[in-house]
């Protein structure tokens, strides 16, 4: 469950778990999070939580609500966001590391990410697991017990050196083509086309279309079989020779 | 009408890098002009059972129904046959999966998403339930045709979050509709016209959660001439990015027009008579 850590002048005052669908913040005592300070409006802001996502909304406060230094009216809270209200700070911490630094932690067990069905009729059956939907009147239940953590960002790709292809014959002799995109196509559509795919562990060339197949370092490519490219490999395609090389 | 000359189809389904089972199922019948993709959910192997039952049942029933009478014919109630058959067979499949889930404890709670397309009379009829998608490439333009039945899509629709923010949402995997979890299900069915040269991509969320739409678009554009390679490349990109879920793709290229033969009033009258 996500929580807010209230602090003032870098002194932590308290931790507030986001247990309710709507948590109001303000100076008046009826707020869920009361901050008794004149810089805070009576009803200053509200945090709305929908399952695993939390949203912050300013309630037209006099002095405004700031997130990471920027004035906001409505904001989709991300792990680590700092909400500023007058001298007070509220740090938003979501238990699941939403955006772990690339390649940091091992992925969570696969089961947590499995698709689940939201059912409108489950509301009264599993009250503890249920958080009500914020907008509209429809209440939405949550069938499975496990909450779904964020799919972590893609695993860190090993650093692949930049590479390029240089044309060695024909009209464009000397021209260099940098392989910066995931896919780079070579050749003439309808005649002969090959593609070089940039993958985490190397560059691969594959025949796409045309009756004749490209030749790489003297070897003719097989259909739909990606061929790994080595430094200084010579590619022959549609009568044109070119050289693949790493630009390290 | 045999559409195998008008349509070129490639399918590929992969377990991915993390999961132990492949709970996706794909089925293509180019001759009859339809393709089906399902992404199952449920404990142990129940997800596979749900998606497998769905593609197999729909595959055989649709082939039978369209062999009896063409999908573009008009039914007694004035609707195209394809719509009537889809509604009926999806309802029946839903019933079968639901029954299996009810009667066998190991299958309790299983369900599946569904996205399918029927090609008939220069049109595509798309039916979907859940968050499996259909995209279309026409010329330079690549776009998503279906709209997910998911919490995230609802939040985007209501303006709560932007599509950009949705990429960071932690509620990615919550669907609001699925086949087999209730006695009845409502598929979303739409018709679109088809042009020769169009490429259609059906996929499970294992692709579009791992690979950005722009990358998918680029791949389909670059490799559209070789559908099999294109399917391999898409799956590989999802796996290279982590492959956290099963990845399935179906690619269909429209090679030529497949308009229904136009008929005179007498044949239409006979057809109407037969439909009664």
Short summary of the structure?
The complex is a heterodimer of chains A (248) and B (276). Chain A has strands at residues 3-8, 11-17, 22-26, 33-34, 45-50, 53-58, 65-67, 70-72, 74-76, 82-85, 88-93, 116-119, 141-142, 163-167, 176-178, 183-188, 192-199, 202-209, 215-216, 219-220, 227-228, 234-237, 240-246. Chain A is mostly beta strands.
Characteristic key phrases:
heterodimer, A: 248 residues, mainly beta, six-stranded antiparallel β-sheet, 23 strands, 42% strand, elongated, B: 276 residues, alpha+beta, five-stranded antiparallel β-sheet, 25% strand
Instruction: Count every helix of chain A, treating DSSP H or I runs of 4 or more residues as helices.
Output: 0
Q: H/E order of the elements of chain B?
A: EEEHHEEEEEHHEEEHHHEH
Rg for CA atoms of chain B: 19 Å
Kindly state the percentage of residues in helix of chain A: under 10%
Oligomeric organization of the protein chains: heterodimer
Helix/strand-derived category of chain B reads alpha+beta
The radius of gyration of chain A is 28 Å
Average the pLDDT over all residues of chain B and give the rounded result. 92
Description of the molecule:
The complex is a heterodimer of chains A (248) and B (276). Chain A has 248 residues and is mostly beta strands. In chain A, a hairpin with an 8-residue loop joins strand 14 and strand 15. Chain A is 0% helix and 42% strand. The two termini of chain A are 46 Å apart. Chain A has a six-stranded antiparallel β-sheet with strand order 2-1-11-10-7-8, with no helix packed on it. Chain A has a six-stranded antiparallel β-sheet with strand order 15-14-23-22-19-20, with no helix packed on it. Chain B has 276 residues and is of the alpha+beta class. Helix content of chain B is 35%, strand content 25%. Chain B is built from eight helices and twelve strands. In chain B, the strands form two sheets. In chain B, strands 2, 3, 4, 5, 6 and 10 form a six-stranded antiparallel β-sheet that branches. Chain B is globular and about 60 Å long. Chain B starts with 6 loop residues before the first strand and ends with a helix. Chains A and B meet through strand 12, strand 17 and strand 18 of A and strand 9, helix 6 and helix 7 of B. Strand 12 of chain A pairs parallel with strand 9 of chain B.
């Amino acid at each position: 469950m996500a929580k807010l850590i209230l602090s003032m002048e870098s002194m932590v005052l308290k931790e507030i778990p986001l247990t309710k669908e709507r948590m109001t913040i303000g100076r008046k005592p009826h707020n869920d999070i009361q901050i008794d300070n004149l810089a805070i409006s009576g009803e200053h802001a509200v945090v709305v939580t929908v399952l695993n996502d939390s949203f912050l909304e300013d309630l037209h406060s006099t002095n405004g609500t700031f997130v990471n230094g920027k004035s906001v009216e409505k904001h989709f809270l991300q792990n680590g966001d700092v909400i500023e209200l007058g001298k007070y700070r509220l740090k938003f911490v979501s238990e699941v590391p939403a955006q772990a630094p690339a390649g940091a932690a091992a992925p969570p067990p696969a089961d947590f990410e499995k698709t689940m069905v939201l059912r409108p009729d489950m509301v009264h059956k599993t009250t503890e697991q249920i958080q009500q939907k914020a907008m509209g009147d429809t209440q939405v239940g949550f069938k499975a017990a496990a909450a779904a953590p964020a799919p972590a960002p893609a695993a860190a790709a090993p650093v692949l050196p930049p590479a390029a292809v240089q044309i060695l014959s024909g009209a464009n002799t000397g021209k260099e083509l940098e392989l910066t995109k995931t896919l780079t196509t070579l050749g003439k559509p309808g005649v002969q086309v090959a593609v070089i795919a940039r993958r985490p562990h190397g560059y691969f060339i594959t025949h796409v279309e045309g009756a004749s197949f490209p030749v790489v370092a003297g070897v003719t490519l097989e259909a739909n079989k990606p061929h790994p490219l080595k430094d200084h490999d010579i590619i022959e395609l549609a009568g044109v020779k070119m050289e693949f090389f790493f630009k390290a | 009408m045999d559409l195998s000359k008008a349509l070129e189809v490639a399918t590929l389904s992969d377990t991915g890098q993390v999961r132990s089972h492949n709970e996706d199922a794909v089925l293509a019948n180019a001759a009859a002009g339809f393709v089906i993709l399902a992404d199952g959910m449920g404990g142990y192997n129940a997800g596979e059972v749900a998606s497998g039952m769905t593609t197999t049942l729909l595959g055989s029933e649709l082939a039978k129904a369209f062999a009896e009478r063409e999908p573009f014919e008009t039914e007694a109630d004035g609707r195209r046959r394809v719509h009537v058959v889809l509604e009926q067979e999806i309802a029946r499949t839903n019933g079968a999966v639901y029954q299996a889930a009810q009667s066998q404890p190991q299958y309790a709670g299983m369900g599946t998403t569904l996205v399918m397309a029927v090609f008939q009379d220069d049109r595509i009829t798309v039916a979907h339930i859940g968050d499996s998608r259909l995209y279309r490439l026409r010329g330079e333009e690549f776009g998503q045709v279906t709209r997910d039945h998911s919490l995230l899509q609802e939040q985007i629709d209501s303006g709560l979050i932007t599509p950009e923010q949705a990429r960071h949402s932690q509620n990615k995997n919550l669907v609001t509709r699925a086949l087999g979890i209730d006695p009845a299900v409502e598929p979303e069915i739409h018709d679109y016209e088809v042009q020769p040269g169009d490429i259609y991509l059906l996929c499970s969320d294992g692709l579009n959660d791992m690979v950005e739409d722009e990358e998918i678009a680029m791949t389909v554009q670059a490799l559209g001439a070789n559908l099999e390679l294109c399917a391999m490349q898409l799956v590989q990109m999802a796996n290279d990015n982590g492959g956290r879920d099963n990845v399935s793709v179906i690619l269909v290229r429209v090679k030529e027009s497949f308009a229904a033969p136009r008929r005179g009033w007498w044949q239409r009258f006979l057809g109407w008579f037969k439909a009664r």
